[in-house]
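pasting for ref. prot 1 ->
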Amino acid sequence: MVGIESSDDAAVYQISDTQALVLTIDFFPPIVDDPWHFGAIAACNALSDVYAMGGTPILALNVTCFPEGMDLGILSEILKGGLAKAEEAGVMIVGGHTINDDEPKYGMAVTGLIEPGKQLTNTCAKVGDRLILTKPIGTGIITTAGKNGVADEDNLATAIDVMESLNKGAAESMLHIGVNACTDITGFGLLGHLQTMADASGVSAIVKMGDVPILPGVTALVAEGVFPGGTQRNLNFINPFVAWSPDLKYEDKIILSDAQTSGGLLMSVSPEKTQDLLNSLSSHGVKGAVIIGEIVKRHTEFMLRVLP
């Protein structure tokens, strides 16, 4: 039902009139030093793809790379972090696979369920829709600062809390209220994932920089030149698709292109449902959800327009 054609967050495969499988996999090297937190973040990141499709994750397989000779206690803590988040999500870890590698890597292959026809994709954003983002951005910048030893500890702790927050409540809200399209914000950054949604839906989008939630300390770090190489590559890719306001700085463009891990859901919702969705998100514990822009008809001169 959903394959690779629109670069969506997961595949959807119908197995009966009433059930379809949601299938995804994601794993990566450590982005934080603490192994338990690394495991928890990686699990949240993998589970998020199922939530973005409107599915309910039910099973997971661990995918692990680990150096021969490294303390197995570290691997144990990584797996414990992943297990804790799986249990919070109501997901059973039913096995996995580990290989030797020079650098630890961890993630999950996740299977979810959804009723056929109720899956959410990135292909159905409608003109007039409001864009709602459920988490602040900047995790790539903060974690890069952490690796370089220049991150404020409080700001790093805040970023870890954000990355360890499941998108379960956000998914429940959008299923209850009803949205037209959804994607989660991960490695291609906010604008990268929005560009994919706009392209797949045949529309354009406007984003207001001033409305985008940003993690504490991010702006100062970017001003000091602290951000990951992947973020610059994201900006290089997205730049031809964007009409930037002349009032925006290079640093603003970097932040909007920042490669995220376990980011929030980006929802495209009709105007008449927007406030109900925000209210539902708040009642599900998603306190930071905000409107960051809107969907407009496809323009020949831009796919995305970014205003101050």
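and prot 2 ->
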Amino acid sequence: MSFAQGSRSSLAFGVESTFGVAATTFTKLPIKTHSLDLSKERLQGQDIQSDRMPRVDRHGNRNASGSVEIDLRKGNYDDFLESGMLSSFDSSNEMVVGTTPKFLTLEDRFEDINQFRLFTGMSVSTTSISIAPNQMVETSFELVGKDMAVSGTGKTTSASVTNSPFDSFNGAVYEGGVGSGDIVNLITSIDFSINNSFAPTFVVGSASTPHLEYGRSVIEGTITVYAQDAVFINKFLNETESGIQVSVDDPSGANAYTFYFPRIKYNGASVPLANEQSRTIEMPFVALYDDVEGTQMKLTRST
């Protein structure tokens, strides 16, 4: 008897033409981990019995969800980034926050025991990105979807793009002003997330959702800055709006992705005394709609 091994597992995905209808072409996806699963609500009978023992326990609505953890790189995850921004890259390789959902099919592949879990109607509810020294650009896609099925036959897949992961030292951070602002060598990390609040819309007569609802685009994050002067603290104290642009790349220097937040507001400036080492300022921020750029955030990929 053999047991499924993580080292013999893989994840593939395809883009759906219709919500909840499995994609027809699939590509394998480089991943670190994932937690994709199907859960069901429980319906428990409330009858009072003299022997105190329940008689009824049924399954309710089905809910597919989970996270996919990856090291960001060019090309492999553009469909996930588009799903998370409800938008798509234009002819200039730029993308702004949009209003058009994009749905994916994901196949969790147990290749050593020939079992395959197929998740349909999946959309990226939250994209979280962490950029810091001595790590790859760590990214998490939190997905919500329609349903899951198991099969002994997997989909035919294409190989993924073979670009190297992005890291934190092949890139640059700019802060303040209009456009790129001033380059900053004080920022030791930046973390941000794009949250759409996707959720199922259950109806009578169906165990799975016929569609997903979503809310506002909420983009928030935190930059951690070495404490050199009062410039950043004063931006919080004076409620001064600013902007951030951060670029990441791989060792080739030719595959950069640039995240631009044209209008942000800092909502804190904590300066803890943790030890005898350098002190840092933790600056949580929110990205707001900018009239000039027409978006909260713009993502540009190299051509």
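The radius of gyration is 22 Å.
The chain has a mean pLDDT of 93.
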